[in-house]
Amino acid sequence: MSISDNKITVPKPVQGTPDATGQLDDLLALMARLRADCPWDKKQTNHSLIPYAIEEAYELGEAVQSDDDEDIKGELGDVLLQVVFHCQMYAEQGRFDMSDVISTLQEKLVRRHPHVFEAETLKDDAAVKVRWDEIKLEEQQAREARGKSKRRLDQVKVGSALMQAQDVQKQASKLGFDWESIAGAVDKLDEEIAELKHELTDKSTAEVKANIREVEKELGDCMFALVNVARKLNLDAEAATLTCVHKFKSRFGYIEEQLELAGKRIEDSDIIEMDALWEAAKQHERSS
Questions:
Q1: Secondary structure element (H or E) that encloses residue 103, with its range
Q2: pLDDT tens, 162-220?
């Protein structure tokens, strides 16, 4: 069913033990069965699922980076599960169903690709991006006509804190609110780090904890300033952080492997031994 005819279909639960058919309707029936018979699935709400949707998106990104087909299929399925789960619950509420979601997407894709489906001609991907932004602006104007007014930075997409920070800064820069050079962004980073140090230096653990909200604000300022430096260098702060995460995991894995070769558990090691192995991991990286 589509939004236009306003008929909402609540999938009927599959009976018995279903086969893996690869068909969307069968998946919807399976989800309906889980909502009917699984205690955990029954108690979920659209709001309670939000953290899982975000987590699955990140895990998909991790799987794509690993380039392992089985992992990628599994994570794509987990992302699809979130879509199916939400659609099932919204259908139960009588608001819309899966076909509404699909038709909305189809309409959006056609609307945003006039160079494909209409006579309009765009010479390269840069021109496509410009036209895409123009169409999104038209869509936003239509939203505002329905009473969905927005401020300039409200167009920043939901994502990780790093992604939002970089996008907020990018949008503000387009409006002229930006440092003229990288040096200005670096100076601001130094300033924020100094303020964080002021909140931490010569203070006891109890004093820091008593003022933890102010410390949190200063820490956030430091991270925001660091993201600004990345943006001024045309680097993706999220990608840079993920690179660091992967590097840390690899080095820590090396520590575990070396301790296992020595017949030791990591729980039985100490910071001095682990730090020495960390340095060895760095040397191993350089030689590989």
A1: helix 98-111
A2: 989 999 999 999 989 999 999 999 999 999 999 999 999 999 999 999 999 999 999 99
> Which tokens hold the place of 111?
């609307």
Tokens standing for 62? 């991790």
169 burial (CB, 10 Å; 0-12 / 13-18 / 19+) is buried
Greatest CA span in the chain, whole angstroms? Answer: 70
Residue 126 has pLDDT above 90, yes or no: no
Label each residue of 226-285 as H, E or C. Answer: HHHHHHHCCCCHHHHHHHHHHHHHHHHHHHHHHHHHCCCCHHHCCHHHHHHHHHHHHHHH
Q: What is the pTM of this model?
A: 0.59
CB atoms closer than 10 angstroms to residue 27:
20
Q: How far is CA 147 from CA 119, 139, 284, in A?
A: 32, 13, 59
Q: Quickly state the pLDDT bin for 1 (edges 50, 70, 90).
A: very low
Residue 283: what pLDDT? 93
Give residue for tokens 């879509």: 83
